[in-house]
Amino acid sequence: MAELTDLSMLEAASALRAGDVSSTELTRACLDRIRAIDGDVHAFLTVTDDLALAQAEAADRKFKTRPGEELPLVLGIPIAVKDVLCVEGVPTTCGSRILEGYRPPYSATSVTRLVEAGAVILGKANTDEFAMGSSTENSAYGVSHNPWNLDRVPGGSSGGPAAAVAARMCFAALGTDTGGSVRQPAAFCGVSGLKTSYGRISRYGLIAYGSSLDTVGALARNIADLAPIFSLMAGHDPLDSTSVTDPVPEIRLNGADLRELRIGVPKEYFIEGLQPEVETAVREAIDAFRGMGAEIREISLPHTDLAVPVYYLIAPAEASANLARYDGVRYGPRRGPGKYPDDYFVTRGELFGDEVKRRIMLGTYALSAGYYDAYYGQAQKVRTLIKQDFDAAFKDVDLIACPVAPTTAFGIGAHGDDPLSMYLEDVFTLPANLAGIPGLSFPVGFDSDGLPIGMQFMAPHLKEAQLFSAAHTYQSATSWHTSWPEL
Amino acid sequence: MTDFDPVIGLEVHAELLTRSKMFCGCAVVDSTAAEPNSSVCEICSGMPGSLPVINQRAVEYALRVALALNCSIAETSVFARKNYFYPDLPKGFQITQYEFPLATDGWIEIDDPSAPVSSKRVRIRRVHLEEDTGKLVHRERHSLVDYNRSGVPLLEIVSEPDLGSADQARLYSLSLRSLLRYLEVNSGDLEKGVMRFEANVSLRPAGSVELGTRTEIKNLNSFRALSRSIEYEIDRQATLLRSGKPVAQDTLGWNEEQQITVSQRSKEEAHDYRYFPEPDLPPLHIDETWVEQIRADLPELPAVKRARFMSEYGLNAYAAGVLTAERSTAAFYEAAIESSQGTSPVKIANWLSGDLFGLLNEAGVEIDQSKVTSEALAGLVALVETGQISAASGKAVLDVLFAEGGSPESVVEKEGLAQVQDQAAIRLIVEQVLSNNPDQVSEYLAGKPALSEWFVGQIMRETRGKADPARVRTELDAALLALNDQEQSQSGR
User: Fold this and answer.
1) CA distances from B294 to A435, B34, B63, B302 (A)
2) Is B144 an 8 Å CB contact of chain A?
3) Residue A1: what pLDDT?
4) Residue B359 and which of A235, B17, B250, B441 are 20 to 30 A apart at CA?
5) Chain A residue at shortest CA distance from B54
6) What is the least distance, in Å, from the CA of A484 to any CA of chain B?
7) How far apart are CA B167 and CA A243, in angstroms?
8) Is B241 a residue whose pLDDT tops 90?
9) Which of B49, B90, B279 is facing A207, going by the closest CB pair?
10) Whether residue A195 lies in the annotated active site
């Protein structure tokens, strides 16, 4: 057998069932690999060795005591969790100094559902502070490095999870996607990343950034590995009033017939500034779908160019309220002279990073008396237009195919002090969040520097199953997802 | 000197008596008594990642109040975030209703028990749901924070500025308190902080329709503070206006020690709460059939009950007001009538609101905790009304019932309080008293009729109050008449 960590999640699950390997062995292999290479990659903020080995032992006991039973596919599988999802008793920092040392008293519903199914938690993966960023450069605990080229960013904000999966330090990882934070790092790191429909997976225990945009997602080495993770996490949660009660669809991965599939290609997503190699790879992938029988149609999503301004009003407005609780009174470090309100100013002033403060100020301004209608109110109206673009498009097509990001992974520091140019990195991913629809990012090639290129599928609200079957059919016929960085 | 009309509006915050908090499963506890931070979870303490879920029972309670206040119920209402920083506010925002409240446009008639007929209709602008904050406990060099109260369901009831005096404001809040208790959604224990008031006060020249600049008095926790602070504020504003000075728009506090209002912040530093719809809660849709169910289940409300007590039991407005102020009192009264088999409801009302209330107040006991049952009170009144015991004995029996419980008949028997009704026995005592007091008899016969009252007193003392006074008088009059006849016939001889 090759290295244990080279297995895909489903291969590892088969090996566990065949008795060829134990969860403890898989877990030790991951922990060893983290120890060996994470000094270079810096995907993890916290590694939970003891917790992981205890969970692995428990999983092994289950395999022994209940042989032949149909056990969850994640049982005994080591995964990483983005550090914005609460894991009871485990440091959860959101990549921020303001939550340094904070150990939540409860676990996120998404995490609980996986842990109850027997998944093994290896640790907490790096993120831009409060998920605000596209590169992990905004993490207060240092940037993560792209395993394909350590001088490049892994994308963000789920850069830690993407790098951990790409570098085979875990079999899958939980991420969150508020504006592209699962899909873009998946593309940058050459892995598969799922952004679920808004409301599909409980946000309970996802530390809020933009509440009306935040979604829980997952990253893995291929589409098939994502399916069981999605199925376990999805479904109504009484603790999240915005989680939908619709039944969770069965994900079928048995080589769907693509001849019935209509794929829309939005002309607004192939714009100036799109790296030519990205466009070429995406168009080739679309051609591959045509070759498998899918009908390809050019479509228009006319309000696409408004997604960035709308997003950067709504998300910061919600964030300005969501981040008000970090005052040093109840948890996290407290700074200042020891009195109200001075401690608030000093704690928040010293412990929030620049990007977080920038967005809090943006959002505070957008909600201020006299400006609300012009900014937040107007943004909500345009958000509706963006949603309507998708509603109209999905009358004619089943899926929309487009690039995930305008470029492949950029260099660490490339966007320097220019937040606006960084914001434009999200131009193709923000619309799905504004519309609440699901998206899937998967590798479709490499650029001349050997960096992965991703393509994105978007589907109507709650139609994750369509994403899975089409993308899985593509991966069954191609091998981009089987290339791994040498590390 | 110019005369001014005060224009007063009230915002009343009432905690709802639900078992759990507004947005989480934590128990609602008495925040003045419970161990600090003993009923707290990740939601009501604002831990990162937690989310609110609307307490349906709190919505139901709020609807009860809104319907009882004759409001229109919004088919869809929206929770919003009200943003401000304070250590008792764990999320840095309060979830409340702002642009789209649960209910609007209602009214309540306020009853003045001292007035002949009830009478003033106060319009209700809006009724909405929100969450309470935690509480700060200040020590000498630091402050502690207790989140037991954080997230307790709070109902805000906002009146139109329809109140014209401190007294009307007090009566309005008393009526609301009575209503909330009737609806069993609030204990009415003001000392536990379950109702809090804010008053908007402005003055305008008598007869004018234009509103003057208003001030807002915050955090009033008792009826006394409410009326005192409004009175003070009316005087203060009147003095300013009379001397030609403007009233500054301001938020005020009430200084209990000095009995004055104190500025808390001026307009320049007014908060911008940056309200926006709470993205974690979908709009609240209220099902019409649910509303009708709640409406149908509403109890008889104080004003209606009061009118009925007047017409059905012949009570005057005052007595009806007193007996309907609390649902439990009214229920006790009607239970007493029920078991009384024909005793006058007015007499029962007198005994209840006079003697029994006196005992209850003195002992600080609620009527439903009283050892005097409604049946016992009815029995006692019947004993007095049928002359089986004297009114004086009745009070003594009530004292015993209040202290020990039991039935009035058994107390009468045990204490030997039954009136002596036996005519022969009374006659014997009358004759004995007359023969023991020959001097007084002579004086009486010599023309001092007032002495007959003295004889009654002597006879009552002899019987230790048990003789039926009416019979005593009959026998005494007969005996004295006989003596008089005797005297006349002797002198005529």
Assistant:
1) 38, 32, 7, 17
2) no
3) 46
4) B17
5) A241
6) 34
7) 50
8) yes
9) B49
10) no
Residue A464 inside a domain? The answer is yes
As for how many domains chain A has, the answer is 1
Mean pLDDT of chain B: 90
Q: Report the pLDDT averaged over residues B440-445.
A: 86
Question: CB of A169 within 8 Å of any CB in chain B?
Answer: no
**pLDDT (tens digit, 9 = 90+) per residue, B376-385?**
999 999 988 8
* ipTM, 2 dp: 0.96
Active-site residue A181, yes or no? yes
- Which segments of chain B belong to CATH 1.10.10.410? 423-491
Q: Any idea which of A352-366, B20-34, B264-278, B349-363 has the lowest mean pLDDT?
A: B264-278
Identify from A109, A129, A314, A327 which residue to disrupt to test chain B contact, counting B C-beta atoms within 10 A and taking the largest count. Answer: A327
Catalytic annotation present for A82: yes
Q: Which residues of chain A have pLDDT under 70?
A: 1-2
CATH number of the domain enclosing A88: 3.90.1300.10
Q: Which tokens sit at A273?
A: 């500034």
Residue A144 lies in a domain: yes
For residue B49, the model assigns a pLDDT of 98
Q: Hey, is the C-beta of B134 within 8 angstroms of any chain A C-beta?
A: no
pLDDT of residue A416: 79
Domain that holds residue A427: 4-259+397-482
State the amino acid at position A42 in one-letter form.
H
Judged by CB atoms within 8 Å, which residues 76-115 of B form the interface with A? 81, 83, 85-87, 90-93
CB atoms inside a 10 Å sphere around CB B98: 18
Contact with chain B for residue A92, Cβ under 8 A: yes
Which chain A residues contact residue B281 at CB under 8 A?
241-242
Q: Three-state DSSP class for B95?
A: strand
- Identify the CA nearest to A181 among candidates A154, A200, A220: A154
pLDDT at B116 over 80: no
| pTM (two decimals) | 0.89
Residue at A353 is within a domain: no
> Is the pLDDT confidence value at B311 over 90?
yes
> What does the block give as tokens for B149?
């109260």
What's the confidence (pLDDT) of residue B410?
Answer: 87
* A22, part of any domain: yes
Model confidence at B208: pLDDT above 70:
yes
Chain A residues touching residue B49 (CB < 8 angstroms):
85-86, 104, 108, 204-208
Does the domain at B423-491 match CATH 1.10.10.410? Answer given as yes
Q: Measuring CA to CA, how many Å separate B10 from each of A61, B198, B203, B301, B374? A: 65, 6, 15, 21, 37
- Cβ within 8 Å, pair B49-A85: yes
